[in-house]
Write a structure and sequence with these properties.
Largest sheet: 8 strands, antiparallel, barrel
CATH superfamily of the largest domain: C-type lysozyme inhibitor
CATH architecture of the largest domain: Beta Barrel
CATH topology of the largest domain: Lipocalin
Radius of gyration: 20 Å
Number of domains: 2
Number of helices: 2
Structural class: alpha+beta
Number of strands: 8
Oligomer: single chain
CATH class of the largest domain: Mainly Beta
Helix content: 10-25%
Amino acid sequence: MNDRGRIMRRIMAGGLACTAALAIGCAGAGTTTSAARSGEIMTEPPRPPRLAPIAEPRTSVYDCGEGLRFTAYFHADTAELILPDSTVILWASMTPAGTRYINGNTSLWINRDGTFLTIGGATYRNCRETEMIRGSR
């Protein structure tokens, strides 16, 4: 075997070792359920890394136009959305432009450009906070 072949074998072996170590290190970090694969809302999603606690829990009411209004209860690392036909717990994750709360195919993204709510394949881009109350339920 020539030098190039030996180098490629070492690269492949190293890549497989890294992949195996990553898989072992992630075991139990969160499971993918059939609901997660199908895009349905999960009741207990894998938890992302813990964020710094928010200064104070709060409740906000949003109007997204098109007849959609919802209430959001913000806690340290979650947001509970009370939507017209369901209640969803979303998990927080930081993005360079703001905070995104996610659970399955539902997300709430609050950033410097506005507030965006996605439910299934529908995204509401004109959500406006109409009321904010310090504290939460």
